[in-house]
Amino acid sequence: MQDSGRHARQHGSHSGSTLAIAMMLPLLLATTTPVNAASSLRDWKEPIILDRSGGFQIGGTIIHNPNNTNQTLSCDHGYMEYFIPWTPRQTSLVMWHSSSTQVWQNRWDGGQGYKDMFLRRGYPVYLWDGPRVGRANWSCRPITYIPQYRDQGNFAAWNFGPSFMNWWPDVQFPTKDPNAWQQATSARYDEFDTYENVLLHAHAAAVAADSGKVGDHIVYLTNSAGGLRAQLTAIRSNTTNIKGIVTYESIGYVYPAGLNITQDSFGGFGPIVVPLDEFKKLAKVKAIQFVWGDHRPRSDKYVQQSLLCAALINQYGGNAEVLMLGDDAGLIGSTHIPFADLDNDKVAKLLDGFLAKNGLGGYTGHWWDFLVSGIQ
Ligand SMILES: *[C@@H]1O[C@H](CO)[C@@H](O)[C@H](O)[C@H]1NC(C)=O
Ligand SMILES: *[C@@H]1O[C@H](CO)[C@@H](O)[C@H](O)[C@H]1NC(C)=O
Ligand SMILES: *[C@@H]1O[C@H](CO)[C@@H](O)[C@H](O)[C@H]1NC(C)=O
Ligand SMILES: *[C@@H]1O[C@H](CO)[C@@H](O)[C@H](O)[C@H]1NC(C)=O
Ligand SMILES: *[C@@H]1O[C@H](CO)[C@@H](O)[C@H](O)[C@H]1NC(C)=O
């Protein structure tokens, strides 16, 4: 370093600094990369710069002890954790799990999940635990936890393969790593797939959406049973804050009355039937996309339901589509949770396209914010 400094003074700063950089580059690579330089350059990521992060409880109710009405319990609220980039885009991405928030935090192999990917892109990210799951644990109703021996069921339900440990040959999961499977199945929360719980979650989420605490440009990203709850949330909300819904393998749909569709008022997977006026609120949402992986045939009951739901939303002037990751985008081996798959960068690019196409990718602030944050 001493030598290159002296050289710069003798021969002018321009050539000197060029030489200094040329000399430093191999040094930097040698000292900061234990593996090889090429792969480390490929893995280079922009830093995540946050303005703030935190969390809050929202929705819920206060019940009184019938034996002593002075005693209360604050319960059935949801819990929202948030991460706000230093230079945020306008759209808030609310990541709504069905199994646990972990699915949004990391890829199956521990690599970058949707949370970090979209923070790097400048989107405010919200991780939502609906009432009675995860960190929104205080239930207004008695809860009995009974161990259900779910591991084998998780494997098939998440479409890692047709049966336990019988992987799809092309599956986007690190099948050789037993720790990855262990991580996936043990992250799961106890959950309540009942009609009552769908209503409870939709109400708490609608209160959150209407509160302004999640911004006024909300896009829900949902997985599995979260999709039905988000559809109902858009119907229950009294503001126009909800701008978009992207469901990954939504199990359950909302339909308008008058179509001879029978509501299931017990389970957590629909169908839910609402008056036509209410259904039309889904047509007011700027953009809705129902996404399916390639291991879900078009004949699947829920794929069929999503096609009908999208067609009805569009019939009332809305903007809904079904995206088949295999047929439409050429992605193979997707699981039920494609945003955690090994090719989740490709799944994320499709979301970039959806947000941009529907005018949901912009910045709120001044034009120079865009320059400061870097062009994505
Ligand atoms: C109210 O009192 C009854 C009778 O003592 C008792 O069985 C019940 O558990 C009490 N309820 C609560 C919420 O404390
Ligand atoms: C409830 O609070 C009121 C007002 O402080 C008090 O008069 C009453 O005795 C309390 N009741 C019980 C059961 O503690
Ligand atoms: C909350 O946590 C407690 C303690 O782990 C557990 O017994 C209870 O079932 C949980 N509540 C819900 C709603 O899952
Ligand atoms: C929306 O307004 C209706 C009518 O006032 C009310 O019953 C409902 O609870 C409101 N929804 C939310 C999420 O606050
Ligand atoms: C409505 O559905 C029921 C059962 O799904 C069927 O038996 C009935 O014929 C249907 N009615 C009409 C008008 O389509």
Automatic annotation (TrEMBL):
Keyword Zinc: no
Source organism, top-level taxon: Eukaryota
CDD domains per the UniProt record, alphabetical: Esterase_713_like-3
Keyword entries, A-Z: Signal
SUPFAM superfamilies xref list: alpha/beta-Hydrolases
Signal peptide: 1-37
Listed name of the protein: Alpha/beta-hydrolase
Gene source species: Apodospora peruviana
